[in-house]
Specification:
The protein is an all-alpha fold. The chain is about 50% helix and about 0% strand. The radius of gyration is 19 Å and the shape is elongated.
């Protein structure tokens, strides 16, 4: 293992990155027991119902897939709070730069639906069944 000021500096940067990642994992963890895919399905159904009830067309609601319809405690549907943006790309997750670089080299950019639903829970140390 290399020694000297450069090696200490690299270890110091890695330690700082790990501390930041630990903070992000805690701050960005989805609520236990939530399923992002079901939340999105429920949101789409609510938007569709609101559109029928109010006679709105998709363009009248913004039309770009973003919505301000209710998410509850950090993402539960139903209480009128703003939607929590969920990661769709690996680069948006609290992963180390080495991991992100490896994913990029492998041409892995966007997560599949099951990855989007499971990885944030796994990063938070929870068991995942999917």
């Amino acid at each position: 293992m290399p020694k000297g000021p450069h090696a200490r500096s690299a270890r110091s940067r890695e330690a700082a990155e790990l501390e930041e990642l630990k903070r992000r994992v805690i701050d960005e963890a989805p609520p236990e027991g939530t399923n992002e895919l079901l939340d999105e399905l429920h949101q789409a159904q609510m938007m569709q119902a609101q559109g029928r009830a109010g006679g709105l067309k998709n363009a009248d609601r913004g039309g770009k897939g973003e919505t301000s319809v209710n998410q509850g405690p950090k993402g539960a549907v139903g209480d009128g709070a703003p939607v929590v943006k969920r990661a769709r790309r690996f680069s948006e997750l609290p992963l180390s730069q080495k991991t992100i670089q490896g994913l990029q080299r492998g041409k892995w950019e966007r997560m599949t639906d099951i990855q989007r639903a499971a990885i944030p829970h796994a990063l938070a140390g929870r068991d995942v069944l999917g």
